[in-house]
User: Fold this.
Amino acid sequence: MTNRETASALQPFNGATVVKRHRVFSFSRVLAITSNTLTELTRLKVFYVLLVFGLLLIGSSIFMAQFSFQQEFQILKDVSLGSISIFTSLLAIVATARMLPQDIEDRTVYTILAKPVPRFEYVVGKIAGVLVLLAISTLVMVAAFLTVLYMREEAVLHATARQMAGAPPDQLADALRAVRASAFNVDLVPGIIIIFLKACLLTALTLFVSTFATSTIFTIVVMVFVYFIGHLEATAREYWLHEHGSGLITRVFLAIVALLFPDLQAFNLVDDIVAGTAISTAVFIKTALLGIFYTVIYTLLAVFVFYGKEL
Amino acid sequence: MVSPTRGRTEIFGRDSRLVESREAVGFLPENPYFYKYLTGEETLRFFGRLCGMKGTTLTNRVNELLDLVRLNKARDRRLGTYSKGMLQRIGLAQALIHDPRLMVLDEPTAGVDPAGSREIRDLIIDLKRRGITVLFSSHLLAQAQEICDRIGILADGVLVREGHLQELIAIENQTELVIADASDELVREIESLVTRSKAKLLERRRSTTTLETLFLESTGGSHKASAAAKAAAGRQTADEQVRKQK
Assistant:
């Protein structure tokens, strides 16, 4: 079939789609960009490498079990949750840093914004894609971690039961209860949610930096600095307050620093949880709200800068 | 995309800075880069969804456009494997996805081989036939002459000439005759008629085809080569005379 024959089969222009009313916000448009971003990230080989890295790290903790079962579970939880935290943070920064600059460099952004897509929907769709990716990878890693923990718990329970075969039932039940208590702790759940929120915060901040950064490398370097400063900040602040008192200027200065460099150490609840300290609901809610607040603020700042950007 | 320093632009009565004004526009940038990891079909679906299309309407439109730009066989291939011409064609298809009234095409055939270039040209002429306004920017003047009804010439950012192509390029005091199978005797007779009158014969030469047509005929790249050869022959004479006039 020739071009012309095919073309004649096409309906003449009727403007049917043009008269349709434009919606200021369309969830389906955001969803289209989100799912496209997710497709892009999952089709990037680096994602699988990082995921394998994370899973390997969790798996390797099994072989560190040369200690008592309490220590073994402790190390398993420490290593696994630590690697989940680092991996999600790394993924958040690396996946987000190249997102907007790449689209601008490749000029794909022109074809997207030439469609009736508002700029904030584009930015929100993009960040949502990374957040979904982070949620999926966190869930995968947590599932792997819990599977390993459960398998080790079962193994230790069997070993304990075998060793104490002749012991009185009360004593055996106590021993088994002690094993179960030191394995899975329900307090881990809020700790993991906070790890995820920390990654969300880093995603939004990376996105914000990438809206005015000159290159992807620059964004990544800035974010690595932010990451380290964010973890050391609490200590520095305590020292500063101790030395200079808490006058108005000091507090304003610290508030600006806190906005530029979010206190990431505050999101490390898992350290305390793994160490056996119970986390109050109030602390959990406060930290979660802080994470959501930062994520929203940085996303809005990114949208604001992107709106004024000449493309 | 760019804020104006002064003045305003309207697209069919809507301020061009408003997002909804883009509902009426299909845009193909110069050397378009789409997401390489998407297949041709996925690309069209993505852009369709951005325009609020879904379900069977979207599926039918995607199929229709893949047929139109002759990429049906390559619909499941990733764009990373597409040739330049194929990318331009998928670019045209994405620009058309929401049935726009205005198409803005920036150098749509830049860097495309002659056969691909001709296919794109034919597609643009089809759009014109369907009643779609095409704003076409190009440095390939011969192609602009083939496609456009109205032209504007920009120099250093200033519109120096604008109007209907035929009016702008016509040479008022000259006439062309293109004659097939003319004997030498007939040609001599015509020449003597011209000499006897007050008119002046500026040039007499054998008609030639264009290099593009020769290429397409030699490579079997065109199904309309013979028709194009005839059309091109006339054009060539006109080109020569314009040059002579200058």
About this structure: The CA atoms of residues 108 and 114 of chain A lie 10 Å apart. Chain A has 13 helices and no strands.
